[in-house]
Amino acid sequence: MEACIFCKIMRGEIPAATVHEDDEAIVFLDINQAIKAHLLIVPRVHAAQWHELDDGTMAHVARLTAQWAPAVVAAVDADGYNLLLNNGEAAGQEVMHVHFHLIPRKRGDGVRMAGVKPRLADAEELRGTASVIKAAQRARE
Ligand code: 5GP
Ligand code: ZN
């Protein structure tokens, strides 16, 4: 895609600090580091959202998150990591080319991944919501 910033990075038109490249994906540092060593894992195919990817690309990108997470954690002596994938503007997606964020985390680092305070729901409500989701899935099949 001509104007897409991640496609431009993959074409070499914009520089990036890359740690891995292969035929299907690229892994580079996010220009805005939520915490040091914050990586982006990006498939070469230009698709906006996760569910639009074919199974092989999905598997490859998911495998890369698992392959690079231990190195990222070791590199900055972290205690854990977040995998984050924003889908759609309402979910905070700014670059409309699907990508995982791999963000190392340290105890007490103060990084907040979401400002939402979850609400404890009762069993009846949860059963009702599960039915609605399953009906939506059946309608897609
Ligand atoms: P999103 O909000 O879409 O999940 O995340 C997009 C990410 O892409 C942001 O964290 C942003 O910092 C990063 N980003 C945007 N432009 C560039 C760029 O030119 N180079 C790099 N390395 N990262 C970028
Ligand atoms: Zn793109």
Would you kindly provide a brief summary of this structure?
The protein has 141 residues and is an alpha+beta fold. Helices cover 32% and strands 18% of the residues.
Topology:
Blueprint (H helix, E strand, L loop, with lengths): L4 H6 L7 E4 L3 E5 L9 E5 L11 H21 L4 E5 L15 E6 L17 H18 L1
Antiparallel strand pairs: 1-2, 2-3, 3-5, 4-5
The site of zinc ion has 6 residues, from helix 1.
How would you characterize this protein structure?
- This protein has 141 residues and is of the alpha+beta class.
- The chain has a single domain, classed as HIT family, subunit A (2-Layer Sandwich), CATH 3.30.428.10.
- The chain contains three helices and five strands.
- The protein has a five-stranded antiparallel beta sheet, covered by helices on one side.
- The longest helix has 21 residues.
- The chain is globular and about 50 Å long.
- The two termini are 30 Å apart.
- The model has no long low-confidence stretch (mean pLDDT 94).
- Zinc ion (ZN) binds next to helix 1.
The largest sheet has its strands arranged as 1-2-3-5-4
Q: Which fold name is given in CATH as the topology?
A: HIT family, subunit A
The total beta strand count reads 5
Ions, cofactors and other bound molecules = guanosine-5'-monophosphate, zinc ion
**What is the rounded distance between the termini?**
30 Å
Tell me which CATH architecture applies here. 2-Layer Sandwich
Estimated share of beta-strand residues: 15-25%
What count of helical segments does DSSP give?
Answer: 3
Classified by CATH, the class is Alpha Beta
Arithmetic mean of pLDDT: 94
User: Helix content range of the residues, please?
Assistant: 25-40%
- CATH homologous superfamily caption: HIT-like
Could you give a short account of the major beta sheet? 5 strands, antiparallel
Note poorly predicted spans: none
The global form is: globular
* Pattern of helices and strands: HEEEHEEH
Number of domains: 1
Structure classification:
alpha+beta
Using the CA coordinates, give the radius of gyration: 17 Å
